[in-house]
Amino acid sequence: MKRHGKNNKGFSLVELIIVIGLIVTLVAVIAPQYVKYIKKTHDAVLAAAAEDVLSAVKTEYGVGNMTGIGDVTVKRGADGTLSVTLGEGLEYHSQTGESFYDVCGVDLSKTIESHLIYTIKVRSQYGAVFIYKPDEAEITMEIDS
Question: What is the count of structural domains for the chain?
Answer without folding.
Answer: 1
